[in-house]
Structures are given as C-alpha cells and as structure tokens.
Design a protein that fits this description.
Blueprint (H helix, E strand, L loop, with lengths): L2 E5 L3 H13 L3 E5 L2 H11 L3 E5 L7 H10 L6 E5 L4 H9 L4 E4 L4 H17 L7 E4 L2 E4 L4 E4 L2 E2 L4 H12 L4 E2 L1 H9 L7 H15 L9 E4 L3 E4 L2
C-alpha cells in the first residue's frame, strides 16, 4: 500500500482529499503546515507528497526546496490556487514533479497520483539498466546518478525523462511523446513542464548547461540524447 503525505492547511479540503485517497486504497498521513509537513516527509519517507503552495510556517516552495536538498526523491505534486504560469514553473524548477491548479476534480488528482506512483515504481525495472556519458554514470534500477564520482540527486520525473531519452538515443523525442510516456494521463500539463525538467537535467548533468552536448534541443521538434 503506497503511503501518501498530504500537506494542506485548509481543513475541509484536507479531509476531503484524505477520504478520497483512502477510498482508493492509499495510506495517508496529513499535515496542516509547512514545518510539520517537512518533518513528516523526512521521518515517514512517503511514496508521494501532495503539497499546497500557500501554507503557514513554510510555504510549499520552501518545503519542496528543503525536501530535494535533503535527498528526497519520491514524487512531489504541488497544489496551487495561483493561475500565473510563473508560479507553476517555479515549483518545477525547485524540484516538484507536477502541479495541479485549484479547483480540480478528484478524478484528475487520482489519475495524476496513480501515474506518478506507477512511474516511480517502474524505474527499478526500466531498461537500459545503466548508462554513462562524460563523467556521468546512471544506474536506473538503483535510481542513482553520479557525476565525477559525486552523487547527483534526480527526481523520479527527471530520471524517467532521462531514461526515455537514453532509450531513444540519437532519435528526436517530441514534447508530446515525453508528456504521454512520462506523465501518462489524459489531462496533460503544458509543454513548458517538459522544458523546465529538461533545463533542470542540463544543470545537473551537462558540463555547460548553456551549451548542452548530451541533451540537445531540436528546434520545433523536441529533444535528442547524444551520448
């Protein structure tokens, strides 16, 4: 049974989401503020975190930042009432795997939760099992990445995108293909989500992120891995 941490300060919504998640068979732990939510994430090691942006104590962006800095790799799904795209992009840049804008349907949230948990569990059985390029070594079953012998933390989404590109080495992979393979649900996020994750990967893995040599953009078509 997958364990989900729900960090949401609005009591009615928190209870409704907890009930829905438990109805679908998930074990749920909850928090109403950023500080206790961060502590729960670090102590309980949940399989997925659902994180509101507007929280007392620490906001969702800060919680996400601290989680990723601590090495937490499980999927993080941000809930936000904000409509501006910049806020969504900020969440992705800070290490969130996905976002969903309020108001949303329970069905949509459950589809995203299921997709992220499925993808996260599939990493251990993915192929290729191992690859290297430059001074980077990736062990997909172990979900570990090193660069120059130093561990580089990648989120489950970043690992899945990298795996897809490596599997299709020297082929152009379109944004739509990445969205369908990586997110895998009907209500897809905008292609900007793909672009943001690609930028994150380059900053972590490329010698010069501004002039990438491994994960390159094919303008108007998508991305290609050259290793």
């Amino acid at each position: 049974m997958a364990k989900i941490l729900l960090i949401e300060d609005e009591q009615a919504l928190r209870q409704a989401l907890q009930d829905a998640l438990e109805y679908h068979g998930y074990s749920v732990i909850t928090s109403a503020d950023g500080v206790s939510g961060l502590n729960l994430a670090e102590n309980e090691n949940p399989d997925l975190v659902i994180l509101d942006v507007m929280l007392p104590g620490l906001d969702g962006f800060e919680v996400c930042t601290r989680l990723r800095a601590s090495g937490f790799r499980s999927p993080v799904l941000i809930l936000t009432a904000r409509s501006e795209e910049v806020d969504r992009v900020v969440g992705l840049e800070l290490g969130a795997d996905d976002y969903i804008v309020k108001p949303f349907s329970t069905r949509e949230l459950m589809a995203r939760v299921k997709a992220h948990l499925r993808r996260s569990s599939n990493l251990a059985s993915s192929s290729p099992s191992r690859c290297s390029f430059g001074d980077v070594v990736v062990d997909f079953p172990g979900s570990t990445v090193t660069r120059g012998g130093k561990a580089i933390p990648l989120t489950s989404t970043e690992l899945t995108i990298l795996r897809l590109l490596v599997e299709r080495k020297d082929e152009v992979v379109s944004r739509d293909q990445i969205l369908n393979v990586v997110w895998g649900y009907e209500s897809l996020p905008e292609s900007r989500a793909v672009d943001t994750h690609i930028v994150n990967l380059r900053h972590k893995l490329e010698p010069n992120p501004g002039k990438p040599k491994y994960i390159i953009t094919i303008h108007g078509l998508g991305y290609k891995f050259i290793g």
